[in-house]
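Q: Hi! First time doing this. I have a protein sequence and I read that you can turn it into a structure. Is that right? Here it is:
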Amino acid sequence: MTFAATVLTLYPEMFPGPLRVSLAGRALERGDWSCETVQIRDFATDKHRTVDDTPAGGGAGMVLKPDVIGAALASVADGRPILAMTPRGKPITQDRVREIAAGPGVTILCGRFEGFDERIFEAFPQIEQVSLADVVLSGGEPAALAILDACIRLLPGVMGAPSSGTEESFEDGLLEYPQYTRPQEWEGRTIPEVLRSGDHAKIAAWRKARSEDDTRLRRPDLWERYSGARAQPASGARRKKKDLDQ
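A: Yes, that's right. Below is the predicted 3D structure, encoded as structure tokens:
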């Protein structure tokens, strides 16, 4: 089954862009996924093909018109997930990427200017408002490319080793452990001895400990969720034991 991506954008020439090369590019050539672009401006009805207007209530910038965006969305709505790229959206997660990659594809709506007229989300409640990170881009296209890349690499056969998609950051709630390769010594720095020991149990324990340490230090938000999730079963077990003791 081909993973079908449809991107609604004012700049269709940006796609597939960098996804035309490397793993994603080879997968595109094989037909593992497809990329269709829809020019939002084609759905404007005036002679100037206007897609935006000034903000209601005043303010700087321009807002994408709901009638134009609504018509563009209606032309492609087919049951696939619809993501609207906006800094007001919920940050996308690896879990959500994996869910999307397991399905038939995705439709991505790329914002520009000051964003979308809010009535779009009332008219299309199935839209997921998504952000890539706590940054503001000039448009949703770079974020859409990143999300598509994250999905494509998880498609069957795209990565060489199946474990490449599971033993990495975010898959188990932690950042990935540090990686090393030859040469064994470089500029006076050596690969940690445990990784050269051949003891798989010790290596696994070292990697788990480093993942936990690095997550705690670098991403306290992830660590809080991870440690909280680990504590819940223990708390439940303690409550169950307390109930039995009564």
